[in-house]
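Just scan this pair:

***
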Amino acid sequence: MESGENLRYIYIILSLPYVLAYYFVYAASPYFRELQRKVVNSIGELYYEFLPDYKYYLQIAEDHRGDYHYGIDQISFFRIIAQYVFKGIKQGGSTIEQQLVRTIIGHYEPTLKRKFIEQLLAISVARKFNKEQTISAYIQIAYLGTKISGVFELAKALELDVFRDSSKLSIELAIRLKYPEPSKYSVMWYKKYQRRKNHIVKLSKMRRSNFVHLAKS
């Protein structure tokens, strides 16, 4: 059995408590049901057929186990909790589904309740939509900088074409998810931008190299 298949089974097991919690909260909370309807309807309305580059680079940069988990990356979540408890280091770790949910419902308060609701909604998204649909919705509404929301506005700002320049635009989008475009450029922002870009390109080269190695073996 390949490691990817093993990982999927691990995530299935780790996700079962969340699925049960989802059904309980859905039945008990009208407020949660309203949020769930809002998220599902928004994703359904936003579907657009983008080229594979967007999924490829977005997952490299934001959610590298995105093809294996079911809306929540519990492995990453547990690692982040451990780092905070033992080292006092705060990190992200939200999946693309979670980031999409957060953007649609507009809740960003740093509370456990908000995080729990976000995770349950992410589970719902993963069960109802495939990765292409999820990513399609997210890259159209994600905040990418001052007066820039989504890939179409970013393409216009950078004078790029969503299809013809998909590889370049995908990288630029992934960078700005972490470091949004400022209203005025600064040396500090540009250094962060360049460091992030180099990191994404390096990860891409490593992944492609691994694919070639596996294909030859």
In short: The chain is about 70% helix and 0% strand. The mean pLDDT is 91. The radius of gyration is 18 Å. The first helix runs from residue 3 to 28.
